[in-house]
Backbone:
């Protein structure tokens, strides 16, 4: 029942989506960047020691595309799906390559969640906020 209610809410909000909010996490205009999209229910609090509050599933469904220089980056993340919220942040350390597209999605192990970075450069169907929800594609986990 919870899955059905969540799916209906996301479907209703999907029509409210507009163009993505673009945030560059660097200064200047390098020629080669990586792009990361946090999916629904992921909250970004910090990137590389800089404070943010990025929540794709806020009052209206928003899409965010974050530009990164190639290399290593560290995130402080939370999870909130409307019925449960993480009490502590989770750290995610990643290495990204120029020209690649990634999503940060939640994964689950028993009663805990953990964030996962997935390279979706060759899987355009996974470039959506709805990965991990009842409305999203099913093949967008870790390869």
Residues:
């Amino acid at each position: 029942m919870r899955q059905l209610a969540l799916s209906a809410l996301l479907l209703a909000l999907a029509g409210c989506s507009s163009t993505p909010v673009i945030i560059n996490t660097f200064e200047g205009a390098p020629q080669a960047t990586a792009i990361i999209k946090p999916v629904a229910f992921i909250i970004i609090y910090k990137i590389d020691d800089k404070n943010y509050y990025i929540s794709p599933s806020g009052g209206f469904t928003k899409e965010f595309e974050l530009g990164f220089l190639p290399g290593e980056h560290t995130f402080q993340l939370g999870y909130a799906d409307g019925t449960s919220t993480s009490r502590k942040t989770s750290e995610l350390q990643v290495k990204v390559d120029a020209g690649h597209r990634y999503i940060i999605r939640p994964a689950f192990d028993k009663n805990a969640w953990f964030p996962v970075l997935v390279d979706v450069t060759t899987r355009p169907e996974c470039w959506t906020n709805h990965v991990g929800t009842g409305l999203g594609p099913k093949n967008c986990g870790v390869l």
Q: What stands out?
A: The chain has one domain: 2-126.
